[in-house]
User: Fold this.
Amino acid sequence: MEKRVTFRGWLLPLCLIAPQVIISVVFFFYPAGQAIWQSLFIPDPFGLSMQYVGLGNFEYLLSDKFYRASFVTTGVFSVLVTLASMIPALFLAVLADRLIKGSGVYRTLLIWPYAVAPAVAGVLWLFMFNTRVGVVSWYLGQLGYDWNHVLNGSEAMGLVVVASAWGRISYNFLFFFAALQAVPRSVIEAAAIDGARFWRRFFTIVLPLLSPTTFFLLVVNVVYSFFETFGVIHTITSGGPQQSTTILVYKVFADGFVGQDLGSSSAQSVILLVVVGLLTVLQFKFVEKRVHY
Amino acid sequence: MKKIVFGALAAATTAMSPIGAYAQTEVQFWHAFTGRLGELVAAQVEEFNNSQSDYKIVASHKGNYSETLNAGIAAFRAGEQPHILMVFEVGTATMMAAEGAIKPVYEVMAESGAEFDPDAYIGAVKGYYTTTDGQMLSLPFNSSTPVLWVNRDAMEAAGVDPDTDLSTWQNVDEVLGQLKAGGEDCPLVTAWQSWIHVENLSAYHDVPFATQENGFAGLDTELALNGEAQVAHLAKMGEWAKDGEFIYTGRRNEGGANFRSGECALFTESSAGYAGIKDEAEFDFDVRPLPYWEGVGNAPQNTIIGGASLWVMQGHEAEEYKGVGEFLSFLSSTPVQAKWHQDTGYLPITTAAGEATREAGFYEENPGTDVAVKQMTANEPTANSKGIRLGSFDQIRGIIDEELEGVWAGDKTAQEAMDSAKERGDALLRRFEQANK
Assistant:
């Protein structure tokens, strides 16, 4: 099945992979190496002096109970964001796929939110849920529910999850929709003739056929929730109330750019790198086995 | 290598620039102001540039306070730092500790020969930016202090005499109960809770916020904010929060919107909130001094400032530092300062500017604008009230905010919260001490 191309000599293949290798080295390996190197020091912000502390920064971090708690917060946050961005996306894609007329319009409208930058999305949601002037919190108040994410940790978590997942639904929708279009009609029709109803067809045929896409999106969304959601958190809660929305990547930012503590910030990046690396390995090892290509 | 390339580029561009703009020395000034404040800074710069032909100040906006400080630090690391960098008051210790990166203002002024009299500056303002032996390190630029804003209409609507004495928290406590009973949904709201209700509370009652003269006397300072005076005040605020007499809206100045819309009766906020409140409020308002607890510490001592100062960075030519000196001297001159004070609501940095404003009748026309000045200058600052100089202070404030939220939510007692804030803050202070050994 697999196609293999054989090159004569080394020059052409090297040239072909060079751009990717160069980009990886410049934008990934070099900064990652820098972070690992810096995590062994406590530098002053201006780069005037550096003190070698070995693994001191890691020791300092791991003995901080707030840092350890931040792992749990990150876990909860990532699971929620991944679920909240993938399930509605799949649902919408299935609905849009069933449309005969006007699916183009729906598709376009559903993709729009992806164009909104995370920080801007954060501000939009913040306005809607503002405890005093927000539209949604006003309606909730009418229903007798006192919305206050400024003091209530679970409400704050809910709000940042929704704000982070919202734009992501579009992205996931796009992939699910394309994958659905690729499901062979003949298989579905055969099942329909055998008397399988829609939901049965969906769970036994469509969903397994979507598994490569689902797996890809799972990996991508977990990485997203780990690294790219910091703009949303920064604009909505700044990690509060108390520490209920301080996820790992937000703490990297806060320690590095608010606290000017580059040693701790680098050590945190290294830890984050390891965590996400492990997570991806685990996903490939255990989840991928259940993927049918 | 990088420096050489940049140097060569700079030389090339200078050589190519038209000779018409003869030997003017450029001075880079990075600041954090936008909107109206940004326009006022631009006007000051323009006035200076037009007043002489030797130097040209180039002002650039670099984002908010934190972003401006980060931009300055990153630029220094790349060898392209500006001459003058605006740094907010919580960044003071970071700048001070970076001896190789900054050039103290007293040194700049002495070398440049520009007019400079350290005694002309208001003690409580310059104290924040001065060493314990009296040397000015950075030039105070915009300074404000917290005061109490009163919505007179809301007081009246709730059946409380708007002229009630609100000078002590004891009185405020009673008034809050009356406001609540009178149907007021938002009796008290605040901005910048740590700055006002912990830092300034400590200074105002002359109790330490941190050891070693609030950090002025050394990097081996520890927080002392879990003292009796602070805990008692925060416990009381916790009770108000529980009874719906104090409404928490957020860590920054979110409460301003609630007060300006007329929703809240009392508001503790910076004196620099004046322009915004005057602009938007459709009700009768008063400015009162920040309340204090009668009988606690030496209250009322004096409150401390917030805002920013101008730091001069190392690594430039003597000729350029001369321009810096001239510009700083210009900013401190009485007419410039008086205008700045009147336009912005920030405190004047010199005594003369305050007097000129009074003589011009400004305080009579705008009642309440002198409350902050009086409150700041009522007493000679003590070791507890001249300011706070802690490393990682921005983050320590974040910790205090988190712990206070625990109190407002009823999850923690004030004592537990402040003990925890001390423990966490001290850990950061030890790291800062280590980084700047």
